[in-house]
TrEMBL record:
Keyword Transferase: yes
One Pfam family here: Aminotran_5
Domain Aminotransferase class V: 42-344
SUPFAM superfamilies assigned: PLP-dependent transferases
Family the entry assigns: Belongs to the class-V pyridoxal-phosphate-dependent aminotransferase family.
Organism this protein belongs to: Nitrosospira lacus
Cofactor names: pyridoxal 5'-phosphate
Matching InterPro entries: Aminotrans_V_dom, Aminotrans_V_PyrdxlP_BS, PyrdxlP-dep_Trfase, PyrdxlP-dep_Trfase_major, PyrdxlP-dep_Trfase_small, SP_NH2Trfase/AEP_transaminase
CDD domains the record matches: AGAT_like (cd06451)
N6-(pyridoxal phosphate)lysine carried by residues: K207
Name of protein: Alanine--glyoxylate aminotransferase
Keywords, ordered alphabetically: Aminotransferase, Pyridoxal phosphate, Transferase
GO molecular function terms noted in the UniProt entry: alanine-glyoxylate transaminase activity; L-serine-pyruvate transaminase activity
Length: 416
């Protein structure tokens, strides 16, 4: 009989991660205040002090989403769990759902519809283009029995921003509810849930909120709450059943699951920092840093994938210049500068880079580090470079686009 060795095959000690500058598609750099919040004493998830913090967290999320929806809270899990929660609660077997796909994450929506037993009617757009409102209108006319329209507001795989307000207007004209992915837009681009009449929305903690991955902010309108309460069949997921979660995130505090307390401290601090800065100031900061990065990249002969009018400031997708080794550039940036950028996905793999300017990562020093590093790496690869030109272009862009004066944020939506 063979004796198994359950001991590690190499010496293992405490893990200390290297310090990176995260300028990829996510996660972003975590702010030191948020890291500090995570290290605070752990409380029980039914402790009255913790539940008081939960109420503040819900209020701060309402501010971030610009909504008065009572059912606004963070799901224990990444943005993919937030996405699945929307679909498993709102889509029953046989339901027809219009799904817009203009990148990777629209494709994941289709998968969710199918796993719920629904029928996905797919509206296709080119990767790098926004969702075409006319195609959505046409699909709804051809499918008058559709129940839901689902689309990605900010497509992380391409950096394309779609017109969420108009798409929701079209959906409601055809008596459809909406599911909107805002994983990359929350905190970084204008987003107004109540004004745009979004029914179900989900995001992620790790992008423009500068919080570690693992939580998915989510919000549901009263229309969705009524739909879920009146479902004929049970929601297929016990963990994501809104009827059960209402008890925990509502007022009764009925035990549902052990909430990730320290992760919620971190999100509370991240949202409080967003509130301190003010949403409009945060949106302007992301736009300003994008403008500076773009000015520098253009001096290096780098072109954008997405047309300017539909371009996300916090996710810059650009074509790899001819004659440049895409993988080697990313390797050199990581090895020599501890700087991470993202590669392309799907059909865009090997063709583009994705530069993230999200949350705490969206700052002048990161823009300048990135441009300086690219100049050096490109030069080493044989590309003719005039050193300092990219940084100079970025400086001129900063000078031409000062941030607006930071005003006190509006009062957060009161806790119900």
């Amino acid at each position: 009989m063979t004796t198994k060795n359950f001991y590690p095959t190499k010496k293992i000690g405490t893990f200390y991660p290297p310090q990176r500058v995260l300028m990829g598609p996510g996660p972003s750099d975590t702010h030191p205040r948020v890291l500090s919040a995570m290290a605070r004493p752990t409380l029980g998830h039914l402790d009255p002090v913790f539940t008081d913090m939960m109420e503040e967290l819900k209020s701060l999320l309402r501010y971030a989403f610009q909504t008065s929806n009572l059912l606004t809270f963070p799901v224990s899990g990444p943005g993919s769990v937030g996405m699945e929660m929307c679909f498993v609660n709102m889509v029953s077997p046989g339901d027809k759902v219009i799904v817009c796909r203009n990148g990777v994450f629209g494709g994941r929506m289709i998968e969710n519809v199918q796993r719920c037993g629904g029928i996905a009617v797919v509206v296709e757009d080119k990767w790098g283009a926004p969702v075409d409102p006319q195609k959505v209108e046409d699909a709804l006319k051809q499918n008058p029995d559709a129940k839901v329209v689902a689309f990605v507001h900010a497509e992380t795989s391409t950096g394309a921003l779609s017109d969420a307000k108009l798409l929701c207007e079209i959906a409601h004209r055809h008596n459809c509810l909406t599911i909107v992915d805002t994983v990359t837009s929350l905190g970084g681009s204008p987003l107004k849930v109540d004004e745009w009449k979004i029914d179900a929305i989900y995001s992620g903690s790790q992008k423009c909120l500068s919080c570690p991955p693992g939580l998915s902010p989510i919000s549901f309108s009263e229309r969705v709450v009524e739909l879920v309460k009146n479902r004929k069949g049970k929601v297929q997921s016990w963990f994501m059943d809104l009827n059960l979660l209402l008890g925990y995130w509502g007022t009764t505090r009925t035990y549902h699951h052990t909430a990730p307390t320290n992760a919620l401290y971190a999100l509370h601090e991240a949202l409080f920092m967003l509130y301190e800065e003010g949403l409009e100031h945060s949106w302007a900061r992301h736009q300003r840093n994008h403008t500076a990065l773009k000015a520098g990249l253009e001096t290096l002969g780098i072109e954008y994938l997405v047309e300017e009018k539909s371009r996300l400031p916090q996710l810059n997708s650009v074509y790899v210049p001819e004659g440049i080794d895409e993988k080697e550039v990313r390797r050199r940036l990581l090895a020599d500068y501890s700087l991470e950028i993202g590669a392309g996905l799907g059909d865009l793999a090997g063709k583009i880079w994705r530069f993230g300017l999200m949350g705490y990562s969206s700052k002048m020093e990161n823009v300048m580090l990135c441009l300086n590093a690219l100049e050096t790496v490109f030069s080493d690869m044989g590309k003719k470079i005039e050193y300092g030109t990219a940084e100079a272009a970025a400086h001129y862009a900063y000078a031409a686009n000062p941030l607006p004066q930071q005003a006190a944020p509006v009062k957060a939506v009161a806790v119900a």
